[in-house]
Amino acid sequence: MTAQAGLAGRTYVVTGSASGIGAATAALLRERGAEVIGCDLDKADVEADLSTPEGRRSLIDQVTAYGSVDAVLAIAGGGKTGLLETNYFGAVATLEGLRPLLARSPAPRAVAVSSTSSLASADDRIVQACLDGDEAAAVAYLADDSTAGGPTGGYGIAKRALNRWVRRTAPTDAWAGTGIALNVVAPGVVDTPAAAWIFADDEVRRTVESAAPQPFGGFPGRPEWVAELICWLASVENRFVTGQIIFADGGSEAVAVGDHHWR
Questions:
Q1: pTM exceeds 0.85 for this model
Q2: Fewest CB atoms within 10 Å of the CB: 43, 120, 122, 195?
């Protein structure tokens, strides 16, 4: 194990730590001298289901018992069930619920994981219900919206709402004003168990790769590549970056959006 400045000696909460990007991030942090409190449905230090209000409260209570933490990495998500519940409401509840613990750290950091799926068009009613904190309405709208398009559509809507929540929240007195950096990392298609359905069928893989090309790094990306960025954003070395949606996607967002934001 090699300790690394900016990570060593710090305590990190990592949700989704049992697989995929969460597991890669937890492993990288431990290798570099950090203490990790892993959180997941099972096989973790803290076992809780972020798709339910009870599970979210359980996670907050269990982590709080550890004492102060230096960073919260809200990586847990899913692409099949509980799309809004886990990917938006679970992530926000984790970040907000653990913010008081972060405030005790001399260098508090927080990172949420989104996706390039957040670039897809979305039902504004669902996004707004998420931002309003109205979980029942958001879930009902999604169930009634035939244009949401199943798992990927709901997943993208949840991540889009998460991006907007971070943009609104990061510069506020409660976060930036208390020294907490809050950012989003939005991966492209990465080789994780959650994305296995893409690679199980050659035609599906070709379709997805054509729709979302990743010219730098290839298709799919590796979880540890995304983990490197998450770890830096959550380190002491990040002194000036907050409120950003950073796409770790091999250039997929740049292909899709081009220079639109700068016109």
A1: yes
A2: 43
